[in-house]
Amino acid sequence: MTGTHDTPRSVAQAPEDLHAHNLPLKKPSERVQMDAGRSASLGSPDDISFLRLPDVKLMSGLSKSSIYALIRSNSFPAPVQLGPRTVAWVRSEVQQWAAKRVRHHRVLNTRGGTEKSA
Predict the structure, then answer these.
(1) Total structural domains in the chain?
(2) Which pTM was predicted?
């Protein structure tokens, strides 16, 4: 910093459009960053890992209310109860949901169709 009004630059700079709207930077937890390259399929029960809501929001691009609305309509994986007041999502189920959405969107675009909103 050189002046009194300068702000420190973060290591991970956000795209310019985020700066223009003063949106907060979001970054995945260390666990999401570490597993970013892993396959969505489970090899064994030992490969099961969980995502908490902030990471599910980040991976899906959805808000909390949208996630729970999709769960109610059986269009998004339901969380697993881990404790009396703790839920988490199975990572592979969220990844499979995302992959299915991408495949569905690609098929619609190749057919020239449009998806109807629920």
Answers:
(1) 1
(2) 0.57
